[in-house]
Specification:
CATH architecture of the largest domain: Orthogonal Bundle
Shape: globular
Largest sheet: 5 strands, antiparallel
Number of strands: 10
Strand order of the largest sheet: 1-2-3-5-4
Order of helices and strands: HEEEHEEEHHEEEEHHHHH
CATH topology of the largest domain: Transferase(Phosphotransferase), domain 1
Length: about 290
């Protein structure tokens, strides 16, 4: 567990700091527990303290705009809660899963199976297109840190959410290629830049081979991104054009290249990434001791 930095006074009245879960050039990220809530409360927060408030590291207008559209069912970004009036910090929901960058470490040769690649890209692209319709875009996706995958509480399927709001900007058409390249770079990360589906993913959990047609369609996409052919022969200029051309194949290929055991394996991996109650309890105990000593 990484010790978390002290919270600003106006935030410390609201939250108990549990542990630091991220640190970067533009601030620190801490898992926080709402004071007065039971240990098992689902209402945990991810607390972001900005390194240099009121500068261009976070854009007040996009944060405000994100909050305005986050009730929309098509919205893919993590829910934003409190935001300091001076833009020194804000909180968002704690997405209980792991990001794509970490998820890769659980799979063969740091490559995701093709069904999972497509099952992540499908809601991701839909969510990004929805953001564009609302005048926003996310342009920090390629390393997988800001794309979260988590088990759903309401269905048997997993869900995808976006974090890293420093990557959110006001959208205009000049950013179309940037957004497209970010998504395709993420896809290349998930496939390992390979042009063929790995042998281990060409069969189901019981050893039965998957259909050749589905594998060929998956490898068409693999080749498309490995050599940036989407900017050449096929010339997709926007994410919308890519989606309109390839979305039917993404959905059908995913369904053809997975089985129940593969989905259960993913659910188990995502459950491993959840912060336990004992960590919350330890933080609350530590906070009480600090308060008594002061």
């Amino acid at each position: 567990m990484v010790a978390s930095p002290p919270m600003p006074a106006n935030a410390n009245r609201l939250f108990v700091s549990v542990e630091q879960i991220g640190g970067e050039i533009n601030g620190t990220v801490t898992l926080a527990h709402l004071r007065g809530q039971p240990i098992g409360s689902p209402n945990r927060r991810v607390f972001k303290v900005l390194a240099t408030p009121n500068q261009d590291l976070i854009y007040p207008a996009p944060i405000k705009d994100l909050k305005a559209i986050q009730q929309d069912p098509s919205h893919l970004c993590a829910y934003i809660y409190e935001c300091d009036e001076n833009e020194e910090w804000y909180t968002m929901e704690h997405v209980r899963g792991c990001n794509v960058a970490r998820l890769l470490g659980h799979y063969h040769n740091a490559q995701l199976p093709p069904w999972l690649v497509f099952d992540i890209l499908t809601p991701l692209i839909r969510g990004l297109l929805h953001l564009q319709e609302k005048g926003l875009c996310h342009i920090e996706l390629e390393d997988g840190d800001n794309v979260m995958v988590h088990n759903s509480a309401s269905t048997s399927l997993f869900q995808v959410k976006l974090i890293g709001f420093e990557g959110v900007a006001v959208y205009d058409r000049s950013q179309d290629i940037t957004v497209l390249e970010q998504v395709m770079a993420l896809a290349k990360l998930m496939t390992g830049g390979k042009k063929k589906v790995a042998d281990v993913y060409r069969r189901g959990s019981g050893g039965e081979p998957f259909g050749e047609k589905a594998l060929e369609e998956a490898e068409h996409f693999y080749k498309l991104i490995a050599g940036k052919r989407y900017l050449g022969k096929f010339r997709y200029r926007t994410l919308r054009e890519l989606w309109n051309a390839l979305s039917p194949q993404m959905v059908s290929v995913s369904a053809a290249l997975k089985d129940d055991a593969m989905e259960e394996e993913l659910r188990t991996i995502l459950a491993m990434e959840v912060v336990g109650h004992y960590q919350i309890e330890s933080a609350i105990t530590r906070d009480r001791m600090d308060t008594a000593n002061n």
